[in-house]
Design a protein that fits this description.
Elements lengths: L5 E5 L2 H13 L4 E5 L12 E5 L7 H17 L4 E5 L12 H12 L4 E4 L7 E4 L2 E4 L2 E2 L18 H5 L6 E5 L1 H4 L3 H13 L2 E6 L4 H7 L8 E4 L28 E6 L4 H12 L4 E3 L9 H19 L4 E4 L4 H11 L1 H21 L2 E7 L1 H10 L4 E9 L2 E7 L6 E7 L8 H10 L1
Parallel strand pairs: 1-3, 1-4, 2-3, 4-11, 5-10, 5-11, 9-10, 12-14, 12-15, 13-14, 15-18
Antiparallel strand pairs: 2-16, 6-7, 7-8, 16-17, 17-18
Helix pairs in contact: 2-3, 9-11, 10-11, 11-12
Length: 427
């Protein structure tokens, strides 16, 4: 049986590829799985990232799935576990970040871990325990309007404390700036004071590189994807060109955008402004009716087929937050999410069946639904398109063709991301 160094559990699919991307860029050979594998690892890799879809389910279900993933990773010899959550710390007041951390700590018999969603390359920084997105606080970034997990408090200690049974402390930027010895001393001091989790300030990628070696002896690391840029060095691994190689890309191209984040709204608007073909799955036309849903899916596919031969097409449901709230008030948040996930899953299968072999999906929950509908069980991680978003490759149950797929968090990417993605893959 193959053995791995680092075992990772991600709470959604876009987050998993984000994490895997950083590990690959730091030189690790990485395999990403969709769900917990049912057999032992046969690939010779340094790290495995298990993609789960546990951000929006009940805490009890999330804990159960996370512990199943942990057991499999331990069976493959992982010497350290990494629990990855969103760089905007997406959660409800009850979880699921805190409950999963508690369960993993108990299973690993450890009394301390750190927590930081920071990734300065993506504009996510933590200062005095407050999470910033770009130049503003989290609760002013647009995340306060998130349809499922609105983030109205930027203080991570206040957000995490009600979710966990552990006392939550802080390793602030003055300690991090001093490097490994100061960080380790602060960890020991916090443990003596009864703290079980420490939020860590991070203002730059240099802080992440200072932090990583201080975490080498922790059985569990919890973070966004940022901390991953420094962890491979703890295992004696350095960046190399071989880790990100993918098969050559071919086939038709499409984009499915289901996120309503500010970033994805701007990306869709930029695409449309350039005159590229786009079709809207209009949430304002949604009804709790299977026939109406089927009709809209058929309309989208009928529109897409003649356009695919001329280049990439975009099918989107992205609308501003105010309009989304109107739809949710009319139909219910859960029903809207379910409707969109089912619709995009059906569309993805049909597009791949007719020859789409390069696919960009925007939105964490939509990405999860699409990957599961396509029957993808493993993803090979390739080159980064933009920070936090790589191209991946894998097989589907739809056909025997290799599918290149990029799973983009709704909050990630420049305005030109959708325009640049396919050019990056070709180059």
């Amino acid at each position: 049986m193959k053995r791995i160094l680092l075992g990772c559990i991600a709470d959604d699919f876009t987050g998993a590829t984000d994490l895997a991307n950083n590990l690959v860029r730091a030189g690790m050979r990485v395999l990403q799985t969709v769900g917990v594998p049912t057999t032992s690892l046969n690939n010779s890799v340094d790290a495995v990232v298990i993609s789960l879809k546990i951000r929006m389910i009940t805490s009890q279900e999330a804990v159960t799935k996370a512990l199943q993933a942990l057991q499999w990773l331990q069976d493959q010899g992982a010497s350290q576990i990494y629990f990855k959550y969103c760089s905007t710390f997406d959660s409800t007041p009850q979880g699921n970040i805190g409950p999963v951390i508690d369960a993993l700590m108990a299973a690993l018999k450890t009394d301390f871990t750190i927590a930081t969603p920071a990734f300065p390359a993506l504009g996510r920084t933590v200062f005095k325990g407050y999470l910033f997105v770009g130049d503003g606080l989290l609760h002013e970034s647009g995340m306060q309007d998130h349809p499922l997990t609105p983030m109205t408090d930027s203080n991570l200690l206040r957000v995490l404390s009600p979710q966990t049974t552990h006392k939550v402390g802080l390793i602030d930027h003055t300690i991090v700036a001093q490097g490994i010895l100061a960080i380790r001393e602060q960890i020991e001091l916090l443990k003596q004071q009864g703290f079980g989790i420490a939020i860590v300030d991070v203002l730059s990628n240099d802080d992440l590189y200072r932090l990583a070696p201080a975490l080498a002896d922790l059985p569990l690391v919890t973070a966004g994807s940022g901390v991953a840029i420094g962890l491979p060095a703890n295992f004696g691994i350095t960046p190399n060109d071989r880790a990100a190689l993918l098969p050559a890309a071919q086939g038709l191209k499409a984009v499915l955008a289901g996120s309503c984040s500010r970033a994805t709204n701007l990306q869709v608007a930029t695409w449309i402004t350039t005159g590229r073909p786009a079709f809207m799955l209009d949430p304002m036309r949604m009804e709790n009716d299977a026939d109406a849903q089927a009709m809209m899916v058929r309309d989208a596919l009928a529109w897409a087929l003649p356009h695919l031969l001329d280049g990439p097409v975009l099918i989107y449901s992205t609308i501003p937050p105010k309009l989304l709230k109107q739809v949710q008030n009319r139909l219910g948040s859960a029903e809207v999410g379910k409707w969109l996930e089912q619709s995009f899953a059906l569309i993805a299968r049909e597009l791949v069946a007719v020859g789409v072999a390069q696919l960009v999906v925007a939105g964490g929950e939509i990405s999860g639904a699409v990957v599961q509908a396509l029957g993808m069980q493993q993803l090979q991680i390739g080159e980064q398109i933009e920070p936090g978003v790589p191209w991946c490759a894998g097989h589907t149950t739809v056909n025997s063709q290799v599918l290149h797929i990029s799973l983009k968090s709704g909050n990630f990417g420049s305005n030109d991301f959708l325009l640049n993605a396919f050019m990056k893959l070709t180059s």
